[in-house]
């Protein structure tokens, strides 16, 4: 069942790879909102990056940034029903919300693990807010990594810098 659910929905990797190509600037909008939030709250000039502008990668910072960006995205989906129709299936919405949350968090902190945790926080918020992530109840692929995103034990996951193209959660099923 788990294998079939992940295979049929394409797995984490495919959902992200395919959705980013046709999101109709929606991912861009959510990410630009995040950049504006970073500028307003943390005084980060994303147009002229400076290593001194980085925010310390703490759980509070991840919670703050990912929550703000994710809630903005969810509100936009609710405000514009055609956007919901365009991103049919919860996996596509989950991927766009997660990507925007993760991108914004990574840019603010300069830390890939903080971004990954922003992604997974987005998944948990999405499920909490809308009761499901994937269509037909297949939401394993969208939540399968939050428990091991900071683990370095090879049987449970690797930190972002150690992950290779054959990392199990990110296999493309074509």
UniProtKB/TrEMBL annotation:
GO molecular function: coenzyme-B sulfoethylthiotransferase activity
GO biological process: methanogenesis
Domain Methyl-coenzyme M reductase alpha subunit C-terminal residue range list: 1-133
The protein's name in its UniProt record: Methyl-coenzyme M reductase alpha subunit
């Amino acid at each position: 069942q788990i294998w079939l659910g992940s295979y049929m929905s394409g797995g984490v990797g495919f959902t992200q790879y395919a959705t980013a190509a046709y999101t109709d600037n929606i991912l861009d909008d959510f990410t630009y909102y995040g950049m504006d939030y970073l500028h307003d709250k943390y005084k980060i000039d994303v147009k002229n990056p400076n290593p001194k502008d980085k925010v310390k990668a703490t759980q509070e910072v991840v919670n703050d940034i990912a929550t703000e960006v994710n809630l903005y995205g969810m509100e936009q989906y609710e405000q514009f029903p055609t956007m919901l129709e365009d991103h049919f299936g919860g996996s596509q919405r989950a991927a766009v919300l997660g990507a925007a949350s993760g991108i914004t968090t990574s840019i603010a902190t300069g830390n890939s693990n903080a971004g990954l945790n922003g992604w997974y926080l987005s998944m948990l918020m999405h499920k909490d807010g809308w009761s499901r992530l994937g269509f037909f109840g297949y939401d394993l692929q969208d939540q399968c990594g939050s428990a091991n995103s900071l683990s370095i034990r090879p049987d449970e996951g690797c930190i972002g810098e150690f992950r290779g193209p054959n990392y199990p959660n990110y296999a493309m099923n074509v």
